[in-house]
Amino acid sequence: MDAFEQQDRANNFKDIDLCVDELPTHQSLGLNWELETDTFTYKVSPEEKPFSRRGLLSIVNGIFDPMGFVAPIVVTGKLLLREIANGSYNWDDPLPRHLFAKWSDWKQSLISLEGLHIPRCYSPTSSCNAAERELHIFSDASEQAIASVAYLRTKDMDNNYHVGFVLGKAKVAPTHGHTIPRLELCAAVLAVQVSEIILDELDIQVNQTRFYTDSQVVLGYIHNQGKRFYKYVENRVERIRKSTQPIQWSHVRTNFNPADSATRTVCAETFHNSMWILGPPQLRDFEIGDLDGKYPLLDPDNDSEIRQNANVKTLKSGIENRAKVFNFSHRTERFSKWNSLVQSINRLKMLARKFHQNDKSDLNTVSTTLMSEQMIILNVQKEAFFSEIECIKNRKPFPRNSSIGNLNPFIDQSGLLRVGGRLKRAEIELSERHPIILPKNHHVSILLIRHLHESVKHQGRHFTAGAIRTAGYWIVGEKTSNRIYHLQVF
After folding, report:
1. Are 125 and 112 within one domain?
2. Among 116, 218, 277, 414, which residue is least crowded by beta carbons within 10 Å?
3. Is there a domain that residue 315 lies in?
4. Number of domains into which the chain is organized
């Protein structure tokens, strides 16, 4: 940096000697980045706010915390704000005295956040020295709040483990009609959403993802293979299983669950040494347990969420089929180009054929490539539209929340799910009459959009949409997926 001319530096670097003077705090994307220690810090506004509903809302919303570093502190303010909102106070009316102590203590504690330093790097070792990376996500809930927090566990070449804070989320819990098991289940859904955000945005390879909750009831719901639930639990368990496998979920004791910090009142003065920031101590151990835990339903005969006398006989095979599909889909995430994914399938087929038939012929032909593309799409469809495919095979109506119900889909002779409609007798190509259906925001769909976007020489999303149609694909929510991809590119 010292080699740059003074006029080429940022404004806050022009008048300092980089070799001698202390480096200033730099603002990056709304966060305060302390260059000297390479950590993120917080600056609390000294402006006084009135003791009113509007004043509290201004302070709560004035804390910019997109990564959730101080989510347990912010959610405490949100709980106080909800208590005030339930009292039917006007925006600028002075609040009653019994709330002043809570307001004053929380507001005063925010000053302690200025001493908080969160390392910018997930690990002190460089990326090239990382032998293995694991994502560990914890969830918890109480009558006040639900929360989830994720850490990246990095193993270096010397078999040392380093734990870095990645992302935290905390929400105020609903006030009525929710039991603790239901709130814990909502927290588990939040953990899945956190994992999807991280895996979608993180540029480094993660070898394994694990989830933890201190609720044995929720673990029983997730691992269940023989009982049916009522709608509330059923929808959330299905959401969890859509993105994770039951074997990825484990139990953690409450005192070793960092997400517990955001479900109760936390003191800001000691927050910098809390488990929320540093991560649980068990992640720094060499071994953290296996993934073979069995979690049966707790007291299924008296659980009000379980449909009594309604066993599921075919659920096990469905779970096993989804697990197999998940394994394939999970492996596709290591590819950044559509052609690379297709060619790798080609090579696997060639190796398998040589092994079984001692055939050394070249399989890298057009027909083989089309078969590989078909294999990829079949597995993606089985993962994303498992329920719809089963409904078509069994001639049953689609679920109400199906994203493709209005497309009148059908399964062709190759097993591919295609768009139906009134064009089946039209004298046009099959790919135009009945495009192949793909899910939105799936990694394979993004690879295909990227491939077709490059094929039209980066001419914009409208040209890309035309290329998708010409290629014979119908991506659910295509406009949204296409727009998101172009926002990432440009």
Report:
1. no
2. 414
3. no
4. 3
Question: What band does 319 get if pLDDT is binned at 50, 70 and 90?
Answer: very low
pTM assigned to the model? 0.61
Tens of pLDDT along 460-473? 888 888 899 889 99
Same domain, 96 and 233: no
Amino acid identity, residue 356?
H
The token pair at 317 is: 């095979």
Tens digits of per-residue pLDDT, 87-117? 778 888 888 888 888 888 888 888 888 778 8
Do 43 and 157 lie in a common domain?
no
Same domain, 241 and 347: no
In a domain, 419, yes or no: yes
CA-CA distances (angstroms) from residue 149 to 29, 142, 277? 21, 15, 10
∠430-435-440 over CA atoms, to 5°?
A: 165
Q: Note the pLDDT of residue 239.
A: 92
| pLDDT of 150 strictly over 60 | yes
pLDDT, one tens digit per residue, over 376-385 is 999 999 888 8
pLDDT tens readout for residues 198-218: 988 888 888 889 999 999 999
Same domain, yes or no: 188 and 214: yes
Residue 1 lies in a domain: no
Last residue of a domain, one of 63, 92, 117: 117
β-strands 249-251, 208-213 pairing? parallel
